[in-house]
Write a structure and sequence with these properties.
The structure is a homodimer. Helices cover about 35% and strands about 20% of the residues of chain A. The first copy, chain A, is α/β, with parallel strands linked by helices.
C-alpha cells in the first residue's frame, strides 16, 4: 500500500523536504542547502540522497511510497523539463533523474502553482474546487487551481498574474520587458516604487521621508499608524491589486482568492482594502468572491508538492 | 449503442437544433422560433417537440441517443438552472424538463462557452486542448477551454472576458455597472463609441463624418480604404482587444486564441493588428500564442452543445 510520499520545494537558498502520509499528515520536514554551483547540477542528487537516507533511517520500503513531488522556482515545460535562472537550470529533467537515483516516480511543477495546490489541499482553500493564489513577495507570483488541478497553461505561463497589464501609462519596463505589469505596483518592490513616486510628487509631510529604509513593511506600518501619505501609497497599492484580482476573477471565476507572501503578513487591513477595490471592479456575479490570507506560509509548497502525487 | 445526439443553441429570436453523430458529423440542422412570450415558458417544450418529431421521422429509438446538449444566452448555475434576460428566464431547470418531456438526458451551458467548445472540437481549435474564444458582437462574449473542458467558474462567470477592466480613466458605465470594461471598446458597439469620441475630439477630415450610419463594418471599411481617422479608431479598438487578450493569456495561457462574432468577419486585417498589440503586451512565454478567426460561425454553438454530451 502506497501511503507515504515526499514533498520537495526547491528555493534559491534552501530545499524544503517533507515526508507526508497520503492523507496529508506531515510526518517530518527538514531543509538542505540549495547548491547552485556548477549550474545547479548537484541539487537533484542532494535531494535524492536526503530522501533515500530518510527512507533508510525509517526502514521504509519503496513500495510504501507514492513518489516525490517537486516544486521548482521557474517554468516547467510540457515534457517535465524545468528551467530556473536562480538555480542555473535550463531544461533540467528532474523527474527522470530522481527516478533513476531513488527508484521513486516524481512529478515536477512550478513553485507558485504548488503553493496554490497546497493551500487548496490543506490550507485556507480547503474544500474549494477552484482558487487563485497570489504571492506578494519581491515580485507577484500566481497559481490557479481549477477542478482541483493546477492550470499550468500551454507554455507554463498559466497564472502569471504578476504580468497582467494594469497601467497603460507606464513607461518604465518590468523585469519581463513589458510596461505596466501588476508586479510593478502590487509587490514588495512595487510598493517601494509607488512610495518613491508619491513622495517625490507630493510636498506633504510624512514620517516616511525620514525613514532610514523604505520597504513595504515600514510603509504599511506608517499607513496603519495614520500617516496620510503612507495611506495614499497603500491605497494605490491596493487599487492595483484589487483591479488585478478582479480581472483574474472575470477570467477564471474561482471560489476563493488567497493572498500569500511577505506582504500578506499585513493581514486584515490589506484584505479589507483590496476587497473594497475588488468589489467595485469585478463582474457582478463574482463580486462577492472571498479574498483571504493564505495560512500555510512557507509550507504551502511542500504540501502542494505532495498533493501532486495524488491528483492525476 | 448511443451514437447520436442533439445540439441545441437557444438565441433571442431562433433556436438552432442539430442532429449529430457522436463522431461530430452533422446529420441535419434546422431552426425554430424562440417564443419569448409568457416568460419564455414555451421554449423548452418547443425544443422537446422538435426533437421528438425528428426522432419519429427517422424512426430512431431513444436508445441510440446520448442526449440533448443545450446552450443558453445567459448564466447557468451549478445546479444546472439557467437564467437569461432575453428569454425571460430566471433559474429555468432546462435539463430536468427536457428529460421529462423527451426521455433523453440533457446538459446545459452558457452559449459563449459552448461556442468555444464547438470550435475546440470541430472548428479552428481542433487538436488544441486549451483555447480562449472571444465573440465580438454587440458586446464581447468569452469562453475558455482547459484540458478539453469548459471553465465555467464558481459563479458561472468564467470567461467573462468582456468585463475585464482595461481603461482606468473611463467614467461612463458599462451595462454591467462597472466602468472601463473591455466590452466598452472592443465590441461592435464599442467600436462605434470609440468612433464618436475620436470624431468629436479631432478636426481631421474623414469620410466617416458623412456616413449615413456609423457602424463597425463601415468604420473598418473606411480604415482599410485608407481613411486616416478611421484608421485611428480601429487601431484604438485593436489596442484594447490586444491588451485584453494578453491579460487573458497571462492568466490561462491557452494554446490558441480565437476571434468570433460579427466583427471577426473583418478577418486578417483585424488579426494582424490585434496580434501586433498582443505581442507587445503578453508575458514573454506566451507572446507567440496564435490568434485566429473562428471558422464554425453560427454553428459553433450546436457543435459545442453536442460536444457537452461527450465530455464528462
Amino acid at each position: 500500500m502506497r501511503d507515504y510520499g515526499f514533498g520537495v520545494d526547491i528555493g534559491g537558498t534552501t530545499v524544503k523536504i517533507a515526508l507526508f502520509k497520503a492523507d496529508g499528515e506531515l510526518e517530518e520536514k527538514w531543509e538542505i542547502p540549495t547548491r547552485t554551483e556548477d549550474g545547479g547540477r548537484h541539487i537533484v542528487s542532494d535531494i535524492a540522497k536526503s530522501v533515500l537516507s530518510c527512507m533508510e533511517r525509517r526502514g521504509a520500503l519503496p513500495e510504501r511510497f507514492l513518489g516525490i513531488g517537486v516544486g521548482v522556482p521557474g517554468p516547467v515545460a510540457g515534457d517535465g523539463s524545468a528551467s530556473a535562472v536562480n538555480l542555473g537550470w535550463h531544461g533540467e529533467h528532474v523527474a527522470e533523474r530522481l527516478l533513476e537515483l531513488t527508484g521513486l516516480p516524481a512529478r515536477v511543477e512550478n513553485d507558485a502553482n504548488i503553493a496554490a495546490l497546497g493551500e487548496q489541499w490543506m490550507g485556507r482553500g480547503r474544500g474549494a474546487a477552484s482558487l487563485v493564489m497570489v504571492t506578494l513577495g519581491t515580485g507577484v507570483g500566481g497559481g490557479i487551481i481549477v477542478n482541483g488541478r493546477i492550470l499550468s497553461g500551454a507554455h507554463s505561463a498559466g497564472g502569471e498574474i504578476g504580468h497582467i497589464p494594469v497601467e497603460p501609462s507606464e513607461t518604465r519596463p518590468c523585469n519581463c520587458g513589458n510596461c505596466g505589469c501588476l508586479e510593478q505596483y502590487a509587490s514588495a518592490n512595487g510598493c517601494v516604487r509607488l512610495a518613491r513616486d508619491i513622495l517625490s510628487s507630493s510636498c506633504k509631510e510624512s514620517a516616511l521621508r525620514a525613514a532610514p529604509e523604505l520597504n513595504s513593511k515600514v510603509i504599511w506600518e506608517r499607513a496603519l499608524g495614520g500617516d496620510e501619505l503612507a495611506g495614499e501609497i497603500v491605497d494605490r497599492f491596493c487599487w492595483y491589486l484589487g483591479r488585478g484580482l478582479a480581472t483574474v476573477a472575470d477570467v477564471v471565476d474561482p471560489e476563493i482568492i488567497l493572498l500569500g507572501g511577505g506582504v500578506s503578513r499585513v493581514g486584515e487591513p490589506l484584505v479589507e482594502r483590496v476587497t473594497a477595490v475588488f468589489r467595485k471592479s469585478a463582474f457582478p456575479a463574482c463580486r462577492n468572491t472571498p479574498i483571504a490570507v493564505a495560512v500555510l506560509g512557507n509550507d504551502a509548497g511542500i504540501y502542494g508538492a505532495m498533493r501532486l502525487l495524488l491528483v492525476d
